[in-house]
Amino acid sequence: MRNILVVGGAGYIGSYMCKYLSKHGYQPIVLDSLVYGHREAVKWGPFFEGTMSNADLLNRIFSTYQVSAVMHFAAFCYVGESVTEPAKYYRNNVSSPLTLLETMREQKVNNFIFSSSCATYGEPLEIPISEAHPQHPINPYGRTKLMVEQMLADFGNAYGLKSVSLRYFNAAGADPEGELGEDHQPETHIIPLVLQTALGQRESVSIFGDDYPTKDGTCIRDYIHIADLAQAHLLALEKLLDGMSGGQYNLGNGDGHSVKEVIETAGKITGMTIPSKITERRAGDPAVLIGSSQKAMRELGWKPEFASLETIIETAWNWHKNHPGGYVS
Ligand code: UFG
């Protein structure tokens, strides 16, 4: 069985990736600091508690297991916090991956898959956004993701590292089998906040602005199911192991939903009234983010299976209603 090191494998997307890898005949080896990840979500292989900035620990893992590839899901991901605490983001999202890549080079591990973001594009000049769109991020979070993409390109040119950067749009949904889901502390993402409101854990959802130039005035996002993200990672992994040199790919559904549509759809699926109130715009929110993923479909053979907003919210609701307190419940 091939070993894949999954950094951040106790987190929301990383833990589902481990389950998916295990189902497809790979052994995931998890490295996670548990600062945001959950020990309960690590079930499919060996676990090491720590960070990718710990070269000794990485060397120990690489000398114990023959690792075919590394997947990195361990970035900090709060856009707002990245503006007020940029040092935290540059350290964890840029400096730590540099240690990981240097250790991989020393240990001759040559395949890397990176969770990048549509936040690397900044304010869109055209919709849908393709991979050729200029990358001018507008916040430190997006800049850290772009810096790692640039580091990967330079490591590829100089040292022959092969890497795939997958630029996610809005990751959402939960394990279709109900075992794993989204449990962020604090929670800032719209779908879990809406579902926590449906469960009565919050009084109402704030809609951050209804005066955007969109059909109902609220922001439009391209929601993409974590199971479809996992499928893309596996396809990219197999291409890399088959000899592909690497590349950058958007992962979105090419379809946008407004904040009001998310709340209405969640109301129908949960059968609950979800109170909402209009508040100020949140700084740094583009009106519309929709990605074109034609390249991933064409070159990786990616076929999203959980594309509809209904399916995304249904799987998330299934998780939230059975785990009202997150992993501890
Ligand atoms: N929103 C609200 N109310 C809330 C929370 C969010 O109206 O309480 C709105 C936001 O303004 C935005 C939409 O819902 O228009 C989605 O917001 P999320 O916070 O769920 O997601 P973002 O689009 O801000 O961020 C996500 C990822 C980031 C990534 C970004 C790329 O969480 O990691 O997409 O744009 F960088």
Describe the protein:
This protein is of the alpha/beta class and 329 residues long. It folds into two domains: 2-172 and 223-251, NAD(P)-binding Rossmann-like Domain (Rossmann fold); 190-221 and 254-328, UDP-galactose 4-epimerase, domain 1 (Alpha-Beta Complex), CATH 3.90.25. It contains ten helices and 14 strands. The chain has helices at 12-23, 55-64, 79-84, 86-106, 140-159, 190-198, 226-241, 259-270, 294-300, 309-322; strands spanning 2-7, 26-32, 47-49, 67-72, 111-117, 162-168, 170-172, 205-208, 220-221, 223-225, 246-251, 257-258, 276-279, 288-289. A seven-stranded parallel sheet has the order 3-2-1-4-5-6-11, sandwiched between helices. The chain is globular and about 55 Å long. 49% of the residues are buried. The model has no long low-confidence stretch (mean pLDDT 97). Uridine-5'-diphosphate-4-deoxy-4-fluoro-alpha-D-galactose binds next to helix 6 and strand 8.
